[in-house]
Description:
Layout: H1 2-41
Amino acid sequence: MDYDHKLLILLLSRESWNFGVKQRLKGYDMMQLGMFLFETTK
Length: 42
């Protein structure tokens, strides 16, 4: 029971971490794209 509980928490934290990384990468990509467009349309 206790072991399963720890495993579940580990899995959830890993999932949320992966999600956070993906969101951050997406935001970074958008920022790069924005800078690129800003440079080309200047």
